Amino acid sequence: MTRRHQQTMSPFEGVNYMFDQAADRLGLDGGMRHLLKMPYRELQVEVPIYRDDGSLEVFQGYRVQHDAARGPYKGGIRYHHEVNLDEVRALASLMTWKTALVDVPFGGAKGGVACDARSLSAAELERLTRRFTQRIWLILGPNRDIPAPDLNTNSQVMAWMMDEYGKRYGHTPSIVTGKPIELGGSRCREAATGEGVSITAQDAMRAIGLAEDRARVAIQGFGNVGSFAAQFLHDAGCRVVAVSDVHGAVHDPDGLDVPALREQGSGHMPLAGRSAATGRAISNAELLELDCEVLIPAAVGHVIHAGNAARIRARLVVEAANSPVVPAVDPILEENGVVIVPDILANAGGVTVSYFEWVQNLQQFPWDEDHIHKELHARMNAACEQVREVASREKVSARLAAYMIAVDAVSRARTLRGI
Ligand code: GLU
Prior knowledge:
It is a single chain. By secondary structure, the chain is α/β, with parallel strands linked by helices. It folds into 2 domains: 143 residues, Leucine Dehydrogenase, chain A, domain 1 (Rossmann fold, 3-Layer(aba) Sandwich), CATH 3.40.50.10860; 155 residues, NAD(P)-binding Rossmann-like Domain (Rossmann fold, 3-Layer(aba) Sandwich). Helices cover 45% and strands 17% of the residues. Strand 3, helix 4 and strand 4 form a beta-alpha-beta unit. Helix 2 crosses helix 15 and helix 7 runs parallel beside helix 14. It is globular, with a radius of gyration of 20 Å. The structure holds glutamic acid. Glutamic acid (GLU) binds next to strand 3 and helix 13.
């Protein structure tokens, strides 16, 4: 593969670029390679709704089920204007590797609707969610495929999905995770992806000998994942020096008041309008190139690419978003001594607590917060340790080590099951 091709890879090609390297190292044969690479099933649907002004609009929706050798398909639903089949495929595949890496008994799936979520009213969002649920419910089920929140979806969207599914199949809390606690959601689920980012960042900091009180952290994206990651790292003693939203970033070398910034964020107020946004306004692009120890891209994919990779100054890049680093530029970061905590490890905290939620729903027995934190830490730390161990034994990057562990686990499960 030429360097030029690597830089123009689609999201799905990007994931498979890593998959192929892992499969080569594991010696997977052609048939198994094809089976594990390509999704099991892809559903594309038209989602018609009446807008508030009475006009009819039709959105494009997708659910891709990638692999279920290790358990039911699992993965979020995103509402974003860039959603397309290739991207959903890539994200479904990432879920397969993520669930295998942290050893939760799920496969991988992803769904989405191509829409500008911000331009939809709450009533329109509800109609869209209910219609989309009807269009895909044939392939869902608590033992088949379990959605969760993702970009621009949240516990309210999950509540509507559960309610709509229940009209057809009867009350089924375990059909979605990331629900409101009142409806059977798990404690700590909302914060879980951010907490997992913080756990893996701290693990990587320990590995490179960086103490929390010496770590300046820059976070791109201050949504659910970025803002909780900021809070956990702030609580751990790190200095969060920059955060951003879609409008831009703020940079305060003395450290931002993260709790105040979060508190002022209700109603999605832009960062720039919050009085706690001290320091200097900078762009999202500038944030990525800041002088800091820990950089956490927590927004969309492919933000670190050939055009800026050489200018990344952080010692650690913790991938809270999915695929924030174009795969072809990993070597540039590595050459510059930047350590990457790969997405399938860094952001696996969400699906891990989703698993706990599913277990609680099936058992009809809620867990307390201490138990959830303890289980989450244990699983995330075990995965970090395993990645480090394989990376040093095989002399490969953390990303390739993570893929090798995951692809090995899924191919073993598939071989044991048969086809
Ligand atoms: N959307 C989250 C992810 O990409 C969570 C998925 C889940 O909990 O099923 O990992």
